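Supplementary notes for students who missed Thursday's class. We covered one full example, reproduced here. Read the sequence, then the structure, then the short commentary at the end.
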Amino acid sequence: MSNNLLSKNITEQMQEEAEIQIRDKKKVVDYNTIEYPIEVIVQKYLVGLDDDSNELFIPDYQRAMIWDEKRQSKFIESILLGLPIPYIYVADTSGEATDENPLETKDLARLEIIDGTQRIRTLANFINDDLCLQDLEKLDKLKGFRFSSLPIARQRRFQRTTIRMIQLTEDADEETRRDLFERINTGSVELNPMEKIRGIRRGHFLDLIDELAKYQKFISLCDFTEPSIRRVEPQEFVLRFFAFLNNYQNFNKNINEFIDSYVQELNKAEPNTLENMKNEFYAMIDFVEMYFPTGFRQGKKKDRTTTRIKFESLAVGITLALRQQEDLKPASVDFLNSKEFIGYTSSDASSSRNKVIRRIEYVRDQILGTVE
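Structure (token representation):
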């Protein structure tokens, strides 16, 4: 039975039973929002760490330290830059039964870290001089610095920086805390590379990308789904098109670094450069609409989605051909179903520099009819 049909068969009795279950299972969890300076957070974590009596402690169900030095350095850099830091979740475990005697309660006013162990460990590593900063994006002059390398005034400002915590009261039992940990760590969705770029590389070039990504003819030819649009995949496709079009021969195999570097460069572009790029994009889309019956979609079936590899191969190859001959009519589009093209654009075609060049120039030469 489909979900739509199932939803239509929901009766009032079923709704009442569902409401009763929600009320029965819902847990009222009291919490407070507090702020601590970094200096205090680190002290609460380190004092008593050796004998497991520290006020701020990591429970047994939490994972070990998994952040490498590069990620730890990036977190410290974010604090130095004054960027917002996600909340740390802790729980007051006062009044819980001891392991030795279930009838005896402990009242050490300890705070169990539910979410934030990597951040707290990183802060402790840095202040203890156990972390050497590296691979910083913005503060590259701090490469090789430890906490003690900073001027005293900067050390004090760093330690006075406050971080917010959500503190559950002692009424939150262990089951509630474990459940919250699981939901925090499995319920969030990692930002994709395009979402990250949009967040940190805003500029006139990305404004152009946003504009072109909404072009209805482009949306139709790629047959983007609503979920893919929400995940800004059209923006990613347009960005990859320009990056490969203007720099494909210098591709370095790391697609995220390749794209990010290109965005930084193009954010400095003059308005007339961006206007020319827009015109090339529109010309390429018009060409595909006129000569490609299934648009950018894979194969002959219209219900198949457009792969990134096929899109960038076709879009860039076509545009390179149009640069040579503006009023071009393709010599043939039969190559779309050839073994060569399918091989070049299959999911396992990978993205080595040679393969990127080969598939883009293959399309260009097929469109121009200059294949030997």
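Commentary. The CA atoms of residues 331 and 369 lie 5 Å apart. The radius of gyration is 28 Å. If anything here is unclear, bring it to office hours.
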